[in-house]
Structures are given as C-alpha cells and as structure tokens.
Design a protein that fits this description.
With about 210 residues, the protein is α/β, with parallel strands linked by helices. The protein is built from five helices and nine strands, in the order E-E-E-H-E-H-E-E-E-H-E-H-E-H.
Amino acid sequence: MKVIEIFRSLQGEGVLIGTPTTFVRFQGCNLQCQWCDTGYAREGGEEMSVEQILEKVESYKTQFVCLTGGEPLLQKDIIRLMNRLLERLYHVTLETNGSISLEDVPCAENMLISMDIKCPSSGMHEKMMFSNLELLSPADQLKFIVADKEDLRYAEDILKTHEVRSSIIFTPVGGLDLEPVAKFVLSKRLNARVLPQLHKLIWGDAKGV
C-alpha cells in the first residue's frame, strides 16, 4: 500500500471531533474535487505492508485510528488492514469519498464509516454511489462539504429522497465559515450536525496535523 504519512493528532471532523487519533493517509484518489485540501496525497508516498503500518500505528499508542487519503479503498490490502486493526481492538474510522462500494468494509462495533456525498461545487457529484447509503449504520456518519446555497439545497434534496440511518454532518468548505450553514440547517429543520474542521481552527492548513 502507498502511504503518504502516518501521524498522531486530534480528529478534526465528524462525531469524534477532538479525539486523539492516529491517522494513516494513503496515496491516490479517483476523484478531483475542486476544493480538495489534500492534493499533496495524489502522488508519492512510501510502499508499506500491513505489518509495517500496524507497527507504526502501535508506536503512537492511541485507541483511535483513522484511514484517510486520498481514497483508502483504492489500496488493495485496505480491508485486510482494517480487519487486523479491529482484531487488535482499535477503533477504526474509514474516510471515503462515496464513489466506491462499501460492501467489503468490515461490520464491527468499533468500526466507523465516514462517507462523503460530494456536492455540485466539488465538480464530482455525479460520481457518487448512492447504493452505499443502504450500507451505513447508525454508528456511521455521512458528510456534506458545502460551499454555497446550491450545495446546501442539493444536500437537502438528497436527505429528502434517501433514507439515511447514520449521523449527518454539514461542514463548510474550508471548515470555518459556519454561520450560513447553521442558519440553513435550522431554517430547514434538518436532522444534521453543523461542525467545523477543528484541525484548521488550531493549525490552519498545515500538513500532518
């Protein structure tokens, strides 16, 4: 598997926001979102085996592990890595862009799928695999990264036309301008959380945080 970086930080997004977490960032993505903030993960990286990744993760001594990218599901051994982490009683979060099937992702008490639905501003909204919504459990989360009113209306339409059992997260592009998103969610009475990107509040656009 091609790994860009492994580091310990605070979870910056979603229901586990603020939790000390070891991040494993993989190389490569099958989408090209207009506002992507991890473009540096498209190329490069170090070839690592499952065992090498496990050894590095263990050195950070955190219970929570986040597999991110890029798009982790492009890595051929990612399911084996998830299973090995779960066997060792880590809590595993898989961050995925919503365009690849989740069928093979392990179903476990300490497994959290964090799936995006790309909105129009990303330029990738037609790439989504909406059948994945049926595979999300109440323990998982569905994220909408929104840039403008069109994105907000698009997200609202998705929630009206699809049954979603997971937690729902709205976050503004850039992770900081929360007020318009909060006003929309409240005015439309959406059952969603409005959350920032905590790592950007603390460290800005720095890598490895």
